[in-house]
Amino acid sequence: MPAPPAQPLTEPVLAVQEELPLLPAPIDRTIERLAVSVNKTELTGVAPVFAPAARVPLAGMFFALPALETTSLLTSAATTFTDLSRRFYGLNTFLLEGVLRTLVGEPRAEGATRLDPTAFGRIMGIDRAPEVKTIRRQHHDLVDTGKIPELMSLIAFTRFEALKTSDTECLAVLYFDGPTRAYEGKKKIAKIHSTRMKMAVPATE
Length: 205
What we know:
The chain is mainly alpha-helical. The chain contains 7 helices and 3 strands; from the N terminus they run H-H-H-H-H-H-H-E-E-E.
């Protein structure tokens, strides 16, 4: 039998992909920062903007987002705090910064000084993470509203409703522990028994 005719050779078509920057520069948010500082806007938080990148330090923190969503912290906070003042870091960004900073082992505000503000801000979609003074100021702003107990109650009820079944009588017991911390400032505050020092000392609880 005669051999079948040879098929013409074709070169494979290669998909051309745009080369991603290894580590892109932060998105410039100068205009928003300036607008907030000179009182030219009623901005209560900038929207996150994420730049394409081939490598993002701390990107593993994104795995915490589904768990954070199940706590209903962000949705409950948005329902509770509806009259916050003008600010660059919005409520979601502020709460997310605290959660992620705690997950990397820096639960206190001072821990922000031990993290790269640009790298930490990049995973939140902002040019840089807030400084310690900003974190403390926004902490005080939330506390001064007097709505923290309302937030905690709303989170608890939301979780209970999500998990409640027809045969559930007692879903859970929520226990709050009040550890004491020795106070070394100059103000006169009440004394609390310290189990570590075995005596009553000026402390916060």
